[in-house]
Design brief:
The complex is a heterodimer of chains A (90) and B (439). Chain A is an all-alpha fold and 90 residues long. Chain B is globular, with a radius of gyration of 22 Å. Chain B starts with 5 loop residues before the first helix and ends in a 15-residue tail after the last helix. In chain B, strand 1 and strand 2 form a beta hairpin. In chain B, helix 2 packs antiparallel against helix 3, helix 4 packs across helix 5 and helix 4 runs parallel beside helix 13. Chain B has 439 residues and is of the alpha+beta class. The chains are: A mainly alpha (90), B alpha+beta (439).
Chain lengths: 90, 439
């Protein structure tokens, strides 16, 4: 049991670390970079593109800096919590 | 070395829609679903290519001659293109006009939400718009303000072109019929309204008709499959022709701009316009050629030709594949007056003109169909050190009844071009491939 909780805890800490990086990156990201991501995501194709979650998210965040920061902070807080839970488990 | 047997070549030259029909007949529904996914975006590079090309050319005109000249030119082109649409509208066919315009948007790879119909209007939300909205969402006006300049009132350039089309239809038909207003709350979204005049008080579309109008064939086919219906052959067959109206409208816009530029600014500026926009954009094709193997390049080109509305046959030679385009889907169909509305748009009638002096951008021929100059320009570019991904025999379609001949060279093929092809674009020899394209 303790080995399993150590493994799960380490995995959560790892996810939390990745999430913190992602949140920080999203917080700092410029609108132009979001635009580039939108162009890449829609160019990949695959059907109803504007309905894919990634494209939907990028569409929401383009031009709405306060929403982008809000989402970034949510990711950051969520990731920190995940990392703390991971540390407790480990 | 030949890569395919004659039977394999026929099989590899099939359209995605033919493959899907065959998979359906075999009962392989997983393959049908896979192919439907590819078919739903089969025109993606062509459509986005046209979108960027149109906007970049408009941007160059704006930079070089100022806003007043751009406004006049774009307005002139819009009136020319909208004239056939206005005819139906003048006769009171408002339902047909709405259907025609929404059919264009239906293939712009954006989402469309119906906003409802009243006795006075029909409204839709482009959520987001797949053309002007895509350029806005992609931040192109911020990333490349040189290529994608905004107007004095900060309006995005492509959206202004769209506005000219609306204004032209309204002016030509004598009715304030079509308008599109960007959504202030959401970047790239736009509200389209059609005001009723002759049909005021009547309801033109029921929910089923609206849904049919806004749903592309691939989506309809997938919906039927989800409901365990297999009657989708009619939706699959020749699906690549579904976006033809939008394809042709963009093709005609380009040709009309070329014609105005040729008559008002001359051949040298026209050549500069093509080199700075189309030829530069073609670099993406060379990069793709460098990264892909010959078989994949061939398959990709087959798909492109189908979605470029061509009718063709393919043969294989030791060093290249030969596409006999009868006709080519853009320049060839236009040369035969088959674009958009057969007989409505043809060289020598209205704005569309032929170039009267032979030169490098006319394959040394005159009179020369002006849309095809971009092929001459990229031919020259490829002979000057780029991969031979898309070579045209400029003499082949010397009159509208003849087919155009296009070659894609195999990657390992020696760079030996027929001397006549080189002289067509003012060269005597082909340069070796630039190192940056050797991977």
């Amino acid at each position: 049991m303790s080995l399993l909780s150590q493994l799960v805890g380490t995995f959560f800490m790892f996810l939390g670390f990745i999430g913190i990086l992602l949140g920080f990156y999203l917080y700092r990201m410029k609108q132009e970079d979001l635009g580039k991501m939108y162009m890449s995501a829609t160019m990949m194709g695959g059907g109803e593109m504007s309905e894919t979650p990634m494209v939907r998210l990028l569409t929401q965040l383009r031009g709405n800096d306060s929403l982008k920061k809000q989402r970034a902070l949510q990711v950051l807080v969520g990731s920190i919590l995940l990392a703390v839970v991971g540390a407790w488990l480990a | 070395m030949l890569l395919y047997t004659p039977e394999e070549l026929v099989s590899e030259s099939r359209s995605l829609s033919e493959m899907a029909v065959e998979a359906l007949e075999r009962g392989n529904l997983d393959e049908v679903r896979f192919l439907l996914g590819r078919m739903s975006v089969g025109h993606i590079e062509l459509y986005y290519g046209y979108l960027d090309w149109v906007t970049q050319m408009a941007g160059k005109i704006l930079r070089d001659f100022g806003e007043d000249y751009f406004e006049t030119t774009s307005g002139k082109i819009a009136r020319f293109l909208m004239a056939p649409y206005a005819e139906g509208l003048k006769e009171g066919n408002e339902k047909g006009a709405i259907a025609d315009i929404m059919t264009l948007w239906c293939h712009q790879l954006g989402k469309i939400d119906p906003l409802g119909e009243t006795g006075n209007e029909v409204a839709f939300s482009l959520a987001p718009c797949g053309s002007g909205g895509r350029l806005v969402l992609g931040a192109l006006y911020e990333i490349s303000p040189q290529k994608y300049p905004r107007l004095r009132d900060d309006k995005p350039l492509f959206c202004r072109i769209c506005q000219h089309l609306q204004g032209a239809l309204n002016e030509t038909s004598g009715k304030a019929f079509w308008s599109a207003v960007p959504d202030p709350k959401q970047k790239g979204f736009c509200r389209v309204r059609f005001s009723k005049h002759d049909t005021r008080g009547k309801f033109l579309f029921n929910a089923e008709e609206t849904s049919q109008l806004l749903t592309p064939r691939c989506t309809k086919a997938l919906q039927r499959l989800e409901n365990n219906r297999l009657d989708i052959q009619d939706l699959l067959r020749d699906q690549h022709t579904e976006w033809r109206p939008l394809h042709d409208l963009l093709n005609l816009w380009v040709t009309a701009l070329f014609s105005v530029v040729y008559e008002e600014q001359g051949t040298d500026y026209l050549s500069e316009l093509v080199w700075e926009t189309y030829v530069n954009m073609f670099d993406g094709t060379y990069r793709m050629y460098s990264m892909m193997d010959t078989r994949s390049l061939f398959r990709n080109l087959v798909r492109m030709w189908y979605y470029h509305q061509a009718t063709f046959r393919v043969t294989e030679e030791e060093d290249r594949f030969v596409f006999r385009l009868d006709p080519c889907g853009s320049g060839g169909r236009l040369y035969r007056a088959e674009a958009l509305i057969p007989g409505a748009f043809q060289y020598g009638k209205g704005m569309l003109c032929e170039i009267q002096e032979p030169g490098d951008i006319t394959f040394g021929r005159a009179p020369f169909p002006i849309y095809c100059i971009h092929c001459a320009a990229t031919n020259r570019d490829q002979y000057e050190g780029k991969p031979w991904a898309f070579i045209i025999d400029g003499e082949a379609m010397s009159d509208p009844s003849k087919p155009c001949i296009q070659y894609i060279y195999k990657k390992e093929a020696p760079r030996k071009a027929p001397p006549s092809h080189l002289t067509q674009v003012g060269l005597t020899e082909a340069k070796p491939l630039h190192k940056e394209y050797v991977i």
